[in-house]
Amino acid sequence: MKTLPPGSTIGILGGGQLGRMLSVAAAQLGYRCHIYAPNANSVAAEVSAQFTCAQDDDIASLTRFAKSCDVITFEFENVPVEPLHQISSCAPLHPPIAALDIAQNRIAEKVFARDHDGTTAPFAEVSDRPALDRAIADIGAPAILKTIRMGYDGKGQSRIQPGDDLDSHWQAVAQQPCIAEGFVTFSHEFSVILVRGQDGEIRFWNTPHNVHEDGILAASTAPAPVAILDQQDTARALAARMAEAMNYVGVLTCEFFATKDGPIFNEMAPRVHNSGHWTIEGAITSQFENHIRAICGLPLGDAGLAAKKVEMHNLIGAQADNWETLLSDGTNHLHLYGKGISRPGRKMGHVTKLHF
Ligand code: AMP
User: pTM (2 decimals)?
Assistant: First the structure.
């Protein structure tokens, strides 16, 4: 294990709020961050030492960036993989590229979970319109049609009810290769958030209970209710097996549905995750700090709860315009991502409250 001393440069692929919070955590430990992102208005670059604004497949810019870094990580799982192979000799990359390969493809991710003894919703690949008829005949409705690639926050998804006209659903996902998933009847949603160090040590944060609205995370609360805690060990064991199989380094998040038959794996994010934002104030060591510690080969920090109960609410769209009211409660920890104009469905910030 190679320890990168403070003062070293951490490269981050992606320039959104996750990169911003990673960069703040890195700065606190004395590191410099270099953001690489295609968008000039990168909210991560605003708080970082260096910024390269270039496309993800611009090999010359990527190589220059990689040579300026002592380690590289990413805050966005849809970074194209092929260019990363080309820069892999310039600086170590954590988490591994294999994790991106799996997480970028909803089918590969579910197969990977099943291969490690996880349970998923029934699913079928839908590569063309006739395959959609076959898939729904096979798995039934209700079902959800999701694009295999590039979907997030409920985007690229269409919910199918019994008797629906399937043409409109196929149009809704822009006729792209999809996965059709059986609709899971769940009591709760939760995520397992773990960090794995370069020596293989794994630490878990308290399991948050997640509530989604319109496919977007609205709130996370820890500790979770008993119905989730009863399923935590099985879910954690699966996430740990998957992390070990990938020789993973950094923070890994796996999302689950709690059902009467146990935890159903939904998806994994090979990065820090929105359902872990509460850890900034609500855990002894945040997901952002432990990700930096892991990729730099430092000892991992304690992931225990810092309060009796912690709740995090996302500020979506215009909800962030309410910042003055939120600040008038002095126990709120307000985070605004500096994105400027709010748009419906856009994650603008979050607010965390600790209960002692
Ligand atoms: P995803 O993009 O897969 O995280 O889906 C976003 C949200 O849609 C999830 O957090 C769930 O609330 C809901 N959802 C996704 N897939 C399913 C499913 N197969 N059954 C029931 N709800 C689902």
Answer: 0.96
